[in-house]
Design a protein that fits this description.
This protein has about 350 residues and is of the alpha/beta class. α8 runs antiparallel to α9 and α13 crosses α16. The chain is globular.
Length: about 350
């Protein structure tokens, strides 16, 4: 296999027999994305669109822990605190352009979301033509836990999930296993991790069948039914409420222990992040495309980064100091200003995304 490396080897680039392979290569950081990685992925994937020697792209991550833990939020924290607004704009604009390129690639992208796949990792794997999870997969959009909102097209995926799972997964940041991810629409196939190398070999040697989807199906194994199916009754009931306080009230009134635990989780979460995320998922249901959802998300993330203290505080508490004791502003849902959500959606970032 022909190999090409980026300057710091954070993305491994190889091609052979029509298969182009992109491997995220920061295993100690669970392949968290930085701007150099985003640019390397974009440059290669864009070039392969016109390369007649590549007709299928394989996207995976190095190491045993996971595909991608998300964007490098520690670096984001430093950019925001340091007042480096141009770098914040560049990171999100280029990340979202990459996510859209994966979604619209003329060469089918086979993404292997093995192990941890969160945040920015969902942006890479969740929009691929063929999305594979394994028995080790753990997927999530946990942005509200750092006082933020699901992005990288996450609001689009959440909006398309069955029933009110989008609101539930978006507000709680709940983790999904392979069965959950397939049921919620974040993945297409489950291939046991032990069979991944055989799948890679089959994709490279394509004989019969030759299409990447048919090859993945050779290794596909149906997981056990998703736990989300049984939880749909209380999730759909509670998360259909008009706003976050009403959702919490409905959860507290439910008999299921998990529903009441979810109520307390939300009550302790960042009120601004919850309210904006709820509206983002619901607005995304009426949007015409992933592109439109990314544009909506871009305005929201820049609003958080440039006007809201919760993002910096959330990253500090969860990633920098790791005291797990964020001080949200405001701290209580009852204290959230009535115009806070409208303010977020009215924000116009400069430069614009597209």
């Amino acid at each position: 296999m022909h190999a090409q490396r980026t300057d710091d080897d954070s993305v491994l680039v190889r091609s052979r027999r029509g298969l182009g392979r992109l491997t995220l290569n920061r295993p100690r950081a669970i392949n968290a994305l930085d701007l150099d990685m985003i640019r390397a992925l974009t440059l290669t994937l864009d070039r392969w669109q016109r390369d007649t020697d590549v007709d299928v792209v394989l996207l995976d991550g190095a190491g045993e822990r996971g595909f991608c833990a998300g964007g490098d939020v520690r670096a984001l924290h430093e950019m925001v605190v340091g007042g480096r607004g141009d770098e914040v704009h560049a990171f999100f604009r280029e990340e979202y352009a990459l996510d859209h390129l994966i979604a619209t690639s003329a060469k089918p992208v086979v993404a292997i979301a093995d192990g941890v796949c969160m945040g920015g990792g969902i942006g890479l794997a969740g929009h691929a033509a063929i999305r594979v999870v394994t028995d080790r997969s753990r997927l999530a959009m946990p942005e509200t836990r750092i006082g933020f909102t699901p992005d990288v097209g996450g609001s689009w995926l959440l909006a398309c999930a069955p029933g009110r799972l989008g609101e539930y997964l978006g507000l709680t940041g709940g983790s999904m296993d392979a069965a959950d991810a397939i049921y919620a629409g974040f993945a297409d196939h489950m291939v046991p991790a032990a069979h991944l190398e055989a799948l890679y070999e089959a994709l490279e040697n394509r004989a019969d069948p030759s299409s990447p989807t048919e090859l993945v199906l050779l290794f596909d194994e149906s997981p056990e039914p998703s736990r989300l199916i049984a939880a749909r009754e209380w999730i759909d009931d509670a998360f259909a409420a008009d706003d976050v306080p009403a959702i919490v009230d409905r959860l507290r009134a439910r008999p299921e222990p998990e529903a009441r635990e979810t109520a307390e989780l939300l009550a302790a979460s960042a009120p601004t992040a919850l309210a904006v995320t709820l509206e983002a998922v619901r607005r995304a249901r009426a949007l015409p495309s992933l592109r439109a959802a990314l544009a909506q998300e871009y305005g929201l993330v820049m609003w958080f980064a440039q006007t809201q203290p919760d993002l910096v505080e959330g990253i500090r508490a969860q990633v920098v100091d790791k005291d797990r004791s964020p001080s949200w502003s405001p701290a209580r849902l009852d204290d959230l200003p009535a115009d806070r959500v409208a303010e977020a959606f009215a924000y116009e970032p400069n430069p614009a995304l597209w």
